Amino acid sequence: MTGPNWDDLRFVLAVARTGTFVGAARDLGVTHATVSRRMASLAERWGGRLFERAATGYVATEAGAQLVDLARRVEADMQAVDRRLSGRDERMGGVVRITSFSLVAELAAPALATFQRLHPGVEAQLSTSLDEASLSRGEADIALRATGAPQETLIGRCVARCEFAVYGARELGAPGVDLTAVPWIGWGDCFGRRRTANFLAEYAPQARFAAEVDTFALMQSMQRAGVGVGTLPCILGDSDPELRRYSPVIKGFGTDIWVLTHPELRSKVRVRALARHLTEALTAMAPAFEGRLSAARAG
Hints:
single chain, 299 residues, alpha/beta, Arc Repressor Mutant, subunit A, D-Maltodextrin-Binding Protein, domain 2, 3 domains, 5-stranded mixed beta sheet, globular
């Protein structure tokens, strides 16, 4: 029996990560039938099934778990070699891949434009997918993350704390209005739902909801239209002349903003330069992120 090669291990790892042959096929860029055939072939070679079907998808058998562990180690070794080789690239040119969430990506756009004018040979590829790209797996070079605990294997800097307050159309009332007396716009399936519920439980337990949204842009539009009040990052609410801030900064609602990269990419000139440029630009926005520019608008 010959040992597994990397091509075999890629299939094993994809099934383990996605839990389905369809998901593995999508990640590998092959057909479902190809994954099924490869798994059958590996099972025959190894004398037993590597995965069993469960309610949550395919789970590794004992033999399959051993191959999954091997695949992860091989993948990590290959990625480490790739990062070391790519990290030696001293050109101020080429592609830098950035993964971010939409708010910070939009706010970083002017900084990216400035960097592009200074270094026209560098192409920034920005992704705001809900599925965070992994720096450790080489899927991105720089990450702009909202987190209180960045991954320990990454390096970077916390540039600001993105604070939130309650905002709504100016005609809804004066600062200090009874938050129970006005309709609310809630958050959908995102981090804001739980935080808003905690805030309302203390300050407006009888609040009536008029709508629910899942993006900052939609929250802002609904607020401008007078649908109701809702929580919004201070950097957006304080800069919008159509909105009024109806609360102080909400304690415990916000999150830290980080600029991160992988240590082995730090020597790549274009990555290091762009990470530094974004760090400086976002740090300059810290007073706006933290709601300190328009504190007088708080109720």
